[in-house]
Amino acid sequence: MRDDVIRVLMVEDDVADARLVREFFRMADDASPIEHVRCLADAVAWLDTHGCDVILLDLSLPDSVGIETIKRMSRAAPHLPIVVLTGLDDPDFALLAVECGAQDYLVKGQGDGRVLHRVLRYAILRKQFEEYARLAGARVKSIIELAHDAIVALTPDQRIVLVNPAAERLFGWPASLLLGRPIDVLIPERFRQRHRDHVAAFARTEEGSLNLSRRGELYGLARDGREIPVEITISRTPSPEGLLFTAIIRDVTERKRAEAELRAAKDSAERALAELERTQARLVQAEKLSALGQLVAGVAHEVNTPIGNALTSASFLGDRTAALRARLTAPGGGFRRSELDAYLGEVEEAAGIVHDAMERAGRLVQVFKQTGNVQADGGRRVFALDRLLEEFAGANRGALDAHGVTLEINCPPGLGMDSHPGALSQVLSNLLANAFQHAFGAERGGRVSVTVSRDIDQIHICFADDGVGIAMDDLPKVFEPFFTTRRHAGSPGLGLNIVFNLVNGPLGGQVTIISTPGVGTSVLMELPRVAAG
Questions:
Q1: DSSP labels, 132-178
Q2: What percent of the chain has pLDDT over 90?
Q3: Helix or strand or coil: residue 451?
């Protein structure tokens, strides 16, 4: 089955129209399986026991008509993309259909099998991106609601638009009474002008966040009139209404009391140690937040490039089509055959760019999913390491031959492990793919070896190649997410980061890299024979 084959559920009461759709796919040499039902009830029943990738939906069915059809289908299959295929050519209705849950809107008789297949493929991708965005939004909402620190979001005119439960507890106000009110209600009067000045200055800078606590002591104002010593960090994000400010507010009342006690008993080693531990905890948390920010920025950078290319090509194609249409509709309008050929060439080129960009975006999404699911390795079990390595070699025989690379495996026979074979196979596959892309040039083959030894309860695996090696300046950064020397070739720089996370995660071991430029690279893994978890 081809990689571009998709499973389609067609809901269409007109048998002739359904036959025409199948013919479109056949003429386009598209082997996608199409399941046809004639009413909405049959579609819902079919989905209860079967699966598909996309729903092709008519809006005039025996048991449902119009927008209600989309709404009912969306409720029955909320995670599947819906593409409307109808005889109604109405732009306003098409917009309403998309707003009600459809991914796209096609008019019967317009387009051919290739167009239809492309629309369905893009609908699947858009639905996937929507799901990723929805899940990310749910995770952010959960983090905000469960955070111990108070979080308050403000509009550009300093009015409150978000209050988390920790902020309600800290200030004694229910969120319903704070939303829409100025932030002044939470700030003692003597600090209000200072707060406005700091935020205004922050809005004019290029800084990503502002720690107001570094500019002097701050106090919040509780509903009962109490002043609460706080630390405030403000970040900003663009919004349609302008900059949106998010304040993370920490109640430091207890810390202030502890600091007073420490000053009174500065010679007490126990109190000094407690302060050191608190400082260490804050540094660890700050490092985690910094790592998260780098990860999000890397994902955005990688995905932005193919999406930007697709948008640019689509915009160019729209402009050229509008210009051509204007010439056709103008009195006495027309064009020469050469102009039509040129336009068709531009259409093919733009479509190719969009297709390649979306394919790259799809591949990146799969890599990101792999990065975020390093624990999902198929489970833990007892297995023979030499057998796993033989299976690994067999599975990659075609790729090895294609790259002109030989693989040597040296493993004691019958060496058993009680661990995660899926994770270990993924580690080896990523290392081999990394060697193909980085160690050996397009015109150069080479040799890869996997050598295994045992030391009491530890398994030592050395994955080595005789490729070009790694530059000394790059070696300390190879396990960082999104670090790559071949970004121009489409590498997102996540392969060795995934290896690091798998080895240090489910496999419970350690990994290091030794490399000499021009000689080769060795990846050394030390794994427990019996995994801890």
A1: HHHHHHHHHHHHHHH-SSEEEEE-TT-BEEEE-HHHHHHH---HHHH
A2: 21
A3: strand
Residue-wise DSSP of 382-405: EEEHHHHHHHHHHHTHHHHHHHTE
| Pairwise CA distance, residues 206 & 296, whole Å | 19
Calculate mean pLDDT across residues 381-388: 92
In 3D space, the residue among 197, 151, 154 whose CA is nearest the CA of residue 171 turns out to be 151
pLDDT at 54 over 60: yes
Please give the model's pTM, rounded to 2 decimal places. 0.36
Kindly report the average pLDDT of the chain as a whole number. 81
Which of 226, 234, 225, 212 lies closest to 152, judged by CA? 234
Contacts made by residues 498-502, CB under 8 angstroms, sequence distance 24+: 498/370, 498/371, 498/374, 498/426, 498/430, 499/427, 499/430, 499/431, 499/434, 499/523, 501/371, 501/374, 502/374, 502/377, 502/423, 502/424, 502/426, 502/427
Residue with tokens 């980061």: 497
C-alpha span between 288 and 282 (Å, rounded): 10
Name the CA dihedral angle for 381, 385, 389, 391, rounded to a multiple of 10 degrees. -50
Distance in angstroms (rounded) separating the CA atoms of residues 351 and 115: 11
Say how far apart CA 106 and CA 56 lie, in whole Å.
10
Taking the C-alpha atoms of residue 329 and residue 360, their distance in angstroms, rounded to an integer, is 38
Residue closest to 4 by CA, chosen among 362, 455, 277: 362
Query: In terms of C-beta density within 10 A (0-12 exposed, 13-18 middle, 19 or more buried), how is residue 171 classed?
Result: buried
Burial class (CB in 10 A: 0-12, 13-18, 19+), 392: middle
Q: Where are the beta strands (DSSP E) in 19-110?
A: 34-37, 54-57, 60-61, 64-65, 82-86, 104-107
327-336 long-range Cβ contacts below 8 angstroms, 24+ apart: none
Task: List the one residue out of 419, 324, 430 whose CA is nearest residue 377.
Answer: 419
Task: Kindly tell me if the per-residue pLDDT of 300 is higher than 70.
Answer: no
